[in-house]
Design a protein that fits this description.
seven-stranded mixed beta sheet; alpha/beta; seven-stranded parallel beta sheet; 20% strand; binds zinc ion; 20 strands
Length: 456
Amino acid sequence: MKPSLTCYGGVGEIGGNKFLLEDRGTKVFLDFGTGFADGIEFYDGSIKPRDVNGAGDLFEFGLLPQIPGLYSERALQNTSLRHTSPEVDAVVLSHYHWDHMGRIAHVDPRIPVYCGETTELIHRASSESSGSPLDDHELRTFRTGMKFRVEQMEFTPVHVDHSIPGAYGFIIQTSEGTVAYTGDFRFHGRAGSLTDDFVMEARTSAPDLLLTEGTRVNATDPQKANPSETSVFEETRRMVSDSRNLVLSTFRGNDVDRINTFYRAARTCDRRLVVSMRTALLLERLRSDRKLRVPRVGKDVGVYLRRKKSGRLDDRDYYPWERPFIKHGISAAEVRKSQGKLFLHLVVWNFPELVDIKPDRGGTYIHSATEAFNEEGEREDTVVRNWIDHLGFTYHQIHASGHAPMEEVGRLVAAIGPKTVVPIHTEHPELFREFREGAPRRLVIPRKDAPLPIMS
Ligand SMILES: [Zn+2]
């Protein structure tokens, strides 16, 4: 059997990456994530697959591939697939985003997960606060250039820049042919040059097959202007310096670039950034990665203290992992008192906190996330806008994407120059023919569950 690649997710969709590489009996999954639209016809915010039924409620609707020797006993307890000893050798994870690792929770814990050192730190922080899909697995960590072997295959991880630290692409040497996998990437973040390193390394390896994301490969990219992280900083600084009242923002709590950007914008304007306990825990755990230079909890950033259980800010109301942050805690009353001096990060499900804070009218709200791209997102956006109107705040959209725009994906493909390109993590694989640099030498649009040869 010649080495092959089978895409079990990430096909014609953004997210859900699950790519099986097979080479003479060696089987490795590149990522094992949840699709954003997985089961949207059957499940929504109120109807969810039951954890207690493992993979059963997902198999029912074809939301996970039924592969023998892949899942845990618990995942298969109530399914027709028999639990056997592992037939898959490893899962190699590109980065800690749900659409790349969310389904690892169902994978047999005897199958090791390879991930970057920073990913392990992010996993540990999540694990302490809310649990992580990697919880039961042995993690084998790597850094850029640290080659590792899984039986027949040799992996070279190379960092890329993305909206979470510790993101990697891979160059994989099989017994016949070389594969390059980009993971998720951009060039316009603070560490954009990391992606250039990947491109150089991939180009040198002259891959037979390039598996590349194309999130923003789209005829009508809503972010055509492609703002960079630096422009997010400039715009935010302007906004904050013009504001006399509370500045409130919603952004992904594990986007460390954004945390740094807002921390610097706040500090420049003599304000203090206040984050959630969960973000504070992540920042603490990421301190050991010196390169990230995250702000220090307590010294640089404050922590928002939500009322819980008794409603009286009693220490006993908080989980053990939350207690060390209480001393840096800023309550709703304190936010109200110092509103002109703070920059508050609040995730949308904590918006009811604003009822306690009662900020003065005339504050500033910064929505720092992707604009809604589906019905569910639009509905949430309407609700957020209603809150902002109710508070008498002004609404601003300031964001830089975690993904490269179409033009730059085209440039990456041309620079690497692979024999075959397989577009994944995109809704428009056919548009890979329309790159300004011209169509790739050979474009193969993958079909779900159908193996492709590595060598054409
Ligand atoms: Zn991602």
